[in-house]
Amino acid sequence: MIMSNELIEKVINSLSEEKSELFVQEQDAPTLIEKKYVEVYNGDAFSNQEINTYLAENFCDVIVLGGLPYNGKSTLISCIYDKFLQDGEFQQYEFVNTKTIIGFEKRSYLARLSAGQQPNTKRTFRTDNPFLNLTLKQSKTNSIKRLILVDTSGEVFDDFKKNSSTIDNFKAISRANHFSYIFDISLIQDLKQKHSAKSSLKTIFRGIEDLKMFPPNIKIELIFTKWDKISDEYKSEADNYIKSILEELKLIITKIPITAYKISSISDLQKFELPELFEYWLQSDTVHDYDKIITKENINWINDYIKYLDHE
Amino acid sequence: MLGFPSTGKTTYIAALWQYLKDSNNQNFRLNVMPEYRDYLESNSEYWISCENVPRTTPENSEKITLSIEINQSEVFDVTIPDVAGESYKQIFLQRRIEENLYSEFSSANGLLVFISSETEDILSHNRHNNIDNTSTNNLTNSPSFEVEKTPTILKLIDLIQIIKSINNNDISLSIIISAWDVIEEKTIPEVWIKTNKPFIYNFIKNNFKKYRFFGVSAQGGDYATNKDELLKENNPINRIKVGYESSISNDITLPLQYLIQ
């Protein structure tokens, strides 16, 4: 059978790329050959089903990132990922592997656009899979750490603020070793947003606590992002604001250690306290141990303040 | 052979073929010539004349099998699929592998991994071409993520990881840094990659038991600027430069020898 080139093209175009790929083998007697394919892991953030499988096979530390839209969850992840890309290691942890390179890339590409400017990382949407995996090796001890970073959409937390039944959308928290709530501290420069942001934070924590979703050994971090966006005249006010949040949160969350970190909005990791936060995530103990936290060499005033609150 | 377009895979094969025919290397020599050698010979013609070897496309990919005598005793059949870099790009994008290639990956004993000696700005702010750099916070105008613009080195890591996950052997790696002639002569390949591409260096170090780094210039220099000099060499295989640890030779079989050991 002889087929014209036009006809062959029509046949090829009529078939779905997903199902088969065709090519002409011989010049005079074209034969359509169906190529068969084997699928491999998709490289994007894990879905619920994929994370269940992964957690069943691997011992992991799960870090759930929470916070309202545009507070900087994805930017925080991008900063850490970019540090590994650039140096292969961060805070004496070497990169080993990740099965979610595309998931990391998605979160990082826009953050890279505007170094030194307002980061405009595309926000994570409800429909995006949130689970990113990063396997690391401690340089000195050679111990392996498998981190799962849960980049839950800010919309999910916005929903939860209004309706406790939406907890199902971030039930990973019940498996978390850390719950890191991201808070855009630059909002305090706008009086209206200043009060609203604190109120939202308290509502979200109160909601999770009421539902008893915090597992027994979880640790909580409040991560105040965009510290570099605070003008000098607001610095002192920002410090007092953070103290007040900690005090008020301690009344809601009474049995879980809470630490606080100030980080920058840009990818300058040595600035502020991202290295300390990262080390804290990777500490191997998951039990409550206040003394261990407060005797860190590079302790900062916020941790000191927690010590003060804890001993009160 | 694993590598993206323009990392020197086909040129490596062309130079390897010429080396196997012309050298007196007794450690790794051609036992018998393959019966069908059109692909090898035609590429080698380009190479000898200091012409760019035509790049492999998905349509003209070849599987080369060479009968090799090692250390004047054992004879091995070394099979090297010359897969187009374009095909590897498609695996990364489509997340699926053509069945025959999948079978090659699962039974492979070693990988020749080609990495460009050009440094890639993996944190580049501009790698998504259609980005409007004048905007600072215009989320509505932000371009959508384009997975094909993922940096090559990350695609390569992902592919090595895919192959490792389907390979049935304890696969070993010879990592070839191509265009080694542009790197300062006394540089040690492993040190170069540790310094210039630390992300993939740590990935390899922490995921494989057996690996070695080589710097290879299969051309011997840039054809655009050094063609006349290169053609003056009496024996074309003396153009080849292979760096391993602190030594430089023309023994382009070293990366293969390591995989067969």
Characterization of this structure:
- The complex is a heterodimer of chains A (312) and B (261).
- Chain A has 312 residues and is of the alpha/beta class.
- Chain A has 10 helices and 9 strands.
- Chain A has an 8-stranded mixed sheet with strand order 3-4-5-6-2-7-8-9, sandwiched between helices.
- Chain A is globular, with a radius of gyration of 24 Å.
- Chain A starts with a helix and ends with a helix.
- In chain A, 38% of the residues are buried.
- Chain B has 261 residues and is α/β, with parallel strands linked by helices.
- The interface between A and B is large, with 38 and 42 residues.
- Strand 1 (37-39) of chain A pairs antiparallel with strand 4 (96-98) of chain B, so a sheet runs across the interface.
Summarize the structure.
The complex is a heterodimer of chains A (312) and B (261). Chain A has 312 residues and is an alpha/beta fold.
Count the DSSP helices of chain A: 10
- The count of strands of chain A amounts to 9
Counting DSSP H or I runs of 4 or more residues, the number of helices of chain B is 9
Cα distance spanning the termini of chain B: 17 Å
Q: Write out the strand line-up for the largest beta sheet of chain A, numbering strands in chain order.
A: 3-4-5-6-2-7-8-9
N-to-C series of helices and strands of chain A = HEHEHEEHEEHEHEHEHHH
| Oligomeric state as shown | heterodimer
What is the N-to-C order of secondary-structure elements of chain B (H for helix, E for strand)?
Answer: HEHEEHEHEHEHHEHEEH
Total beta strands of chain B: 9
For the termini of chain A, the CA-CA separation is: 90 Å
Structural class of the secondary structure composition of chain A?
alpha/beta
Tertiary shape of chain A: globular
Strand content of chain A: 15-25%
Mean pLDDT of chain A: 78
Number of domains of chain A: 1
